[in-house]
Design goal:
The structure is a homodimer of 264-residue chains. With 264 residues, chain A is α+β, with helices and mostly antiparallel strands. Chain A has two domains: 92 residues, Orthogonal Bundle (Arc Repressor Mutant, subunit A); 159 residues, Chorismate lyase, CATH 3.40.1410.10. Chain A is built from eight helices and eleven strands. Chain A has a six-stranded antiparallel sheet with strand order 5-6-7-10-9-8. In chain A, strands 1-3-2 form a three-stranded antiparallel sheet. In chain A, strand 6 and strand 7 form a beta hairpin. In chain A, helix 2 crosses helix 3. Chain A is elongated. Chain A starts with 27 loop residues before the first helix and ends in a 6-residue tail after the last strand. About 6% of the residues of chain A have low confidence. At the A-B interface, helix 3, strand 8, strand 9 and strand 11 of A face helix 3, strand 8, strand 9 and strand 11 of B. Chain A binds a DNA duplex (19 and 19 nucleotides) through helix 3.
Chain lengths: 264, 264
DNA sequence: AAGTGGTCTAGACCACTAG
DNA sequence: TAGTGGTCTAGACCACTTC
């Protein structure tokens, strides 16, 4: 196999009756899943690449294919892997529009989705303030990159994004590189820095427009704005981005469906 | 078996080589899942009750236990069923605090969860207006029940809920019954009317406080409020409740994590 | 034709719950 | 002790992709 696979730290469990080599305190498929997760998180298999076939994994870990499938199933459900019949199982790539609407929740008041047009207002380097440090789980005064974007929908400015990134995670990130991205910022995270955004944690509140934000959005001070404070997380819930968005919800809404599974 | 099980409309597929009785255009486990869903949705097994054992289902549908498990797995993942080892598989009951925080997203600014104290302001019957009819997928002028609640967190009024219910789905619902609920409203839906809320669809926007809502929340007119317009859905995405909430986010936030799976 | 994931089967043993 | 769900195995065939 091309990239070395994570080595299993236990012998295959004997099928029936015989004493297991090591008393597993957790199911085999969880063990396998942990190994696969580690391999993905460490970049052993990069985004867009295929992991070994199920048969190969079964042989490598010394377990049945069904066990491999169960481990892979959970990673697919989590969004870390994606299956393609006849081709293989691939590390999720944030390309195309998949992530666009996976993490972008502002839609027209009628529910119509629209692609935002992004204009970068500022790009600066600095030191983490207390709130940023807490959100990003880094030390105060650690180096960060701050980016302000103005997002327009249907030609009108609707969202001001203030993004804070831990500089240590994004070495060599310049405004030029940031501006040259041909896709979402999460795609940039992944393609250039191997950072796979898996989850976001969002806190929303209402506030009144003021100052530069009001100007950028073209609304009067005192207008109601929706503030979204989002932390993006990668494997092991490590924070990789803090983003404070202010949304003019006069003609758009934040849309969210809750509850597992889709329509039955 | 106690309640009649949904009858399979196809013969068991022959294991190897032999022609299948009916050319299945979808996997067997999806067929089984559909039958189980139907049984739950129709109330054949009520909330809190156990469905037949996996072995019994396998025998009944003429498939292997593994296939039953896969069908049940998806319903468990969807929240319609819950397994209890050694006891059985049960139709999800909205009792206890499970649903409380499953569908209630307002938390303290620091993220601390709190149980809301509910006070009913008004309880009226009427006819659906256009917006209500559209949201609930009912005809205009159909009978509805309208309830206004004031929710307090930590002793302070924080949320005004305007609930609209299709009266046809909740026969005999009176203010007395509504007030006598010992649990969440969704628990009442389920225990009294057999309605199982599975998903919600929410649209959020910022607005300015005004009128009775401002008074109830104890904020000045013109203060920013978070408006949540929620439609609760049951099986087959049938709407059962429209709820417009207005939240004072001065000391609380709407919290939401996005992305499948929990921490790895 | 070969290789991949997708479905399905049949049966084993384990862990938990209840009478 | 009996019954339940939980885990794991081994192997079959199917559907899709690529050569």
């Amino acid at each position: 196999m091309l990239p070395a696979m994570p080595s299993p730290n236990r012998a295959a469990r004997s099928p029936a009756g015989a004493a297991p080599a090591l008393p597993a305190d957790r199911p085999l498929y969880e063990e396998v899943r942990a190994h696969l997760t580690e391999g993905i998180a460490e970049g052993r298999w990069r985004a867009g690449e295929a992991i070994p076939s199920e048969a190969a994994l079964a042989a490598h870990f010394g377990v049945a294919i069904g066990t491999i499938r169960k481990a892979v199933d959970s990673l697919v459900a989590q969004g870390a892997l994606a299956r393609r019949q006849g081709k293989g199982t691939f590390v999720t790539a944030h390309d195309g529009r998949r992530l666009m609407f996976h993490f972008f929740h502002v839609v027209g008041a009628d529910g119509a989705k629209a692609y935002p047009e992004v204009r970068t207002i500022s790009f600066e380097r600095g030191r983490a303030e207390a709130a940023e440090a807490a959100a990003l789980a880094i030390a105060r005064d650690e180096r960060v990159v701050r980016i302000r974007n103005l997002l327009s929908l249907d030609g009108r400015p609707v969202i001001v994004d203030d993004i804070t990134l831990p500089a240590a995670l994004f070495p060599g990130l310049t405004e030029r590189i940031f501006a040259a991205r041909d896709n979402t910022i999460y795609h940039l995270f992944q393609s250039r820095y191997g950072i796979n955004v898996l989850r976001t944690d969002e806190r929303l509140r209402a506030q009144l427009a003021a100052g530069a934000v009001a100007t950028l959005l073209g609304v009067a001070p005192g207008s109601p704005l929706l503030e979204i404070r989002r932390v993006a997380l990668t494997f092991r819930d490590r924070p990789v981005e803090l983003r404070v968005s202010r949304v003019n919800t006069a003609a758009h809404v934040y849309h969210n469906t809750f509850g597992k599974g889709e329509a039955i």
